[in-house]
Amino acid sequence: MARMTVNERPLEFALDSATPLLWALRDAANLTGTKYGCGVGDCGACMVLVDGEPLRSCLVTIAEAEGRQITTIEGLSRDRSHPVQQALVAEQAIQCGFCTPGIAIAAAALLARNPAPGPEEIKAAIPNLCRCGVYPRLVRAVERAGRVMRREETISAAPAPGIGAADAARAVPALAAEKPEE
Ligand code: FES
Ligand code: FES
């Protein structure tokens, strides 16, 4: 049993306290945006924010997450409008997309503490593995997201054309319950 706040909602997991946070998020809370890659702390696909710090959720037990504020990719923005999400799309820094949620989480944490990082800082702060090799585009995307956060540029690359903000949120099952009746 463990209680925590996930994407601003209180959640209580009736699971063994040694359960990895990754499993609880994906299998119990249906927050499948957080990806299960290596399972042993190498790839970064499972990154979530724990009290604002990007951590590999496969290495965090729900007991260790007790009382913490957890943010998954579903909670980074309700409509994919976080500057990192916009810039990843605008710079086409996504191929298969499997690594993308973890990268977006790591990038958002970096820009929250420094909205103007240089390339080397970006590479150091985002150790995530990408089998598709989006690394050069990733650096450009994070630099661009920083410019958006500094209000030097605006982009509107997300949600994708034809998908409204309400539709985007509705497509996330764990958030759908919070949507008002229409
Ligand atoms: S699944 Fe957690 S680091 Fe790879
Ligand atoms: S875009 Fe495919 S693993 Fe990174």
Helix content: 25-40%
Q: Which class do the helix and strand fractions yield? A: alpha+beta
Extended strand count? 5
At the fold tier of CATH, the topology name of the largest domain is: Ubiquitin-like (UB roll)
CATH first level of the largest domain: Alpha Beta
**Percent of residues in β-strands:** 5-15%
Shape descriptor: globular
Provide the CATH architecture of the largest domain: Roll
What separation lies between the terminal Cα atoms?
35 Å
The topology string of helices and strands comes to EEHEEEHHHHHHH
Bound molecules: FE2/S2 (inorganic) cluster
Spatial ordering of strands, largest sheet = 2-1-5-3-4
Radius of gyration: 16 Å
CATH superfamily descriptor of the largest domain: Beta-grasp domain
User: How many distinct helices?
Assistant: 8
Mean pLDDT: 89
As for the number of domains, it is 2
* Biggest sheet overview: 5 strands, mixed
Given as residue ranges, the uncertain stretches (5+ residues, pLDDT < 50) are 176-180
